Amino acid sequence: MLGVFMTTPGQTVGVSVFIDYIGTDVGLPRERVLLLYSLGTLIGILPAPYIGRLVDRFGPRNAIGFAVVAVGAACAALAWAHGPWSLGAGFTLLRGAAIGGLSLVSGHMINLWFDRYRGRANAISMMGLALGGLVVPGIAEQLALAYGWREAYLALGAVVVVVMLPLGLIFFRNRPQTYGLLPDFGRAASPKAPFEIAGMSSSEACRTLMFWYLLAIGILVNAVGTALLLDHVRALQAAGMSRAGAIALLGVVTVSQVIGSLGGGALVDRLGTQKVGMLGLLLLASTVLCVMVTPDLLAGAIYAAALGAGLGVSHVVGGAGLAEHFGTRHLGNLRGITSVVGIFGAAAGPLPFATWPPQVGYVIFLASIAAALVLGVMAAPRPFVRAEAAKL
């Protein structure tokens, strides 16, 4: 959970506070900054499958130090940006280190150490992202107002390294079987007992509709979430709210995301990711409909709550779905692939708002969500046999 929390400076909810400050300082219009952010997101995540294979081979314990230092260095690189090229490079490094590095390693360890409780464990870890959205934007805004956005980003990067590096090195571990343990707080096993790591390869998984359904959820939660969070302040100001009120509503998004994550985790353990994924898609659809028609309903609370709940449920499904249906043998590689494709969604999500009126983007989102729901109905459930625990 702390590892996920520390990715917030590189998450959209953290970057969104700085967009206007960066544009004014660097001398670029807001739309150009958003375009550079999208391109940086797209390029930065490309090494994720390779990173995932390395994590499969060497384990989270050996990867966490590199991931934490990379996030801190990326924050410093962004703070150094003074033009479009350096700004694009800063966004690339930041998004790659946070999403393709620290977030991937943290989520991977959860899926190795939990099986029957995987949904709830992923939900608790995803609370780090929600808490980051609750804490970091307000602190970042105050730091930027007091010292400037560059100093604010340097401070955020320093906190990530100083706090997360020692804790990551102390607490992160590889597969439980390596230590003679079983997942889900199971009894100790003989360290010499043979065990088989079960799982489907990426080529085998790609031949199933379930994989494409989970991939569609990953694309949409990134696309819709990124676009709406980046457009959050503008949309609510256009509806008559103040900038301070719009930023305060990010707290409602966060609280609702925590509730959605915890509830979604319990539902995943009970019903599986296929059904709960449909719930997440419906929540995202209701969010888009709300912001299209009445974003200021109940002072924006309904829109913010629906957005947070949809993000929370969908993130839990994305975190647990691959391990549930395809095992853990090649999980790092699979997570790397889905991270890349999901970030394509994050990169493409804001583009309709930079090219067309917002209403056009909302219609595109609704049509895409409907297509993903059809995939979910058609996909044959493939709950993976818990071979590792059975053999032990």
Key terms for this structure?
392 residues; mainly alpha; Growth Hormone, Chain: A; 78% helix; globular; disordered C terminus
- For the record, the CATH architecture stands as Up-down Bundle
Strand fraction: under 5%
The CATH class turns out to be: Mainly Alpha
Question: Which structural category do the helix and sheet elements fall into?
Answer: mainly alpha
Q: How is the main sheet built?
A: none
Compute the average pLDDT: 87
The CATH superfamily is known as: MFS general substrate transporter like domains
> So what's the overall shape?
globular
Distance separating the two termini: 28 Å
CATH third-level topology: Growth Hormone, Chain: A
Count of folded domains: 1
